[in-house]
Write a structure and sequence with these properties.
Blueprint lengths: L26 E3 L3 E2 L2 H11 L9 H6 L9 H5 L9 H5 L3 E11 L8 E13 L3 E12 L4 E12 L3
Antiparallel strand pairs: 1-4, 2-4, 3-6, 4-5, 5-6
């Protein structure tokens, strides 16, 4: 029996599509995540943001919040494309991450569960590259939209 050589490339959870094969409206779900106190602490450590609204429960209650309030960037990172299947679908076509914007529409507290989604909203071909725009949304456990925005990626055309 001939043993096949090991290939790390075979460990991809999907087949990559070319820019031309992508479709407006195509959705990429990102696994849900419950915002725990540990995640708040980790974000505070990584960001250096020491405002008490993000780590002092009593301060938050004195200011009309039911618990610690998530930092906007802490909510935005839930829509990181790499957390789902998106990077496997675009594969080696990815040249770079160009742009990101977010609007924060409702507060996110400790204990909330967030459900991120990326939806292709625009495909702009150029000569040798294309710009892929996705709408990013994050809903909470009550089906409330807590964040929306866009992300733009530069991709190579063709396979």
């Amino acid at each position: 029996m001939t043993e096949e050589l090991f290939s790390p490339e075979k460990h991809s959870p999907g087949v990559a599509l070319s820019f031309e094969e992508l479709k407006v409206g195509q959705e990429f779900y990102i696994p849900s995540r419950t915002m725990t106190e540990a995640l708040f602490s980790a974000f505070q450590l990584a960001s250096g943001d020491n405002h008490p609204i993000h780590y002092d429960v009593e301060y938050c209650r004195r200011h009309g919040h039911k618990h610690m309030l998530a930092h906007g960037f802490q909510v935005a990172i839930q829509s990181a494309a790499g957390a789902g299947l998106f990077p496997y679908v675009i594969g080696d076509a990815l040249i770079g991450f160009l742009e990101q914007s977010s609007r924060f529409l409702k507060p996110v507290y400790v204990g909330d569960t967030l459900y991120p989604l990326l939806t292709i909203s625009e495909l702009t071909p150029q000569r040798t590259t294309g710009v892929l725009t996705v709408k990013s949304t994050v809903h909470n456990q009550n089906s409330e939209l807590v964040m929306d925005g866009i992300q733009k990626y530069l991709l190579k055309l063709g396979k």
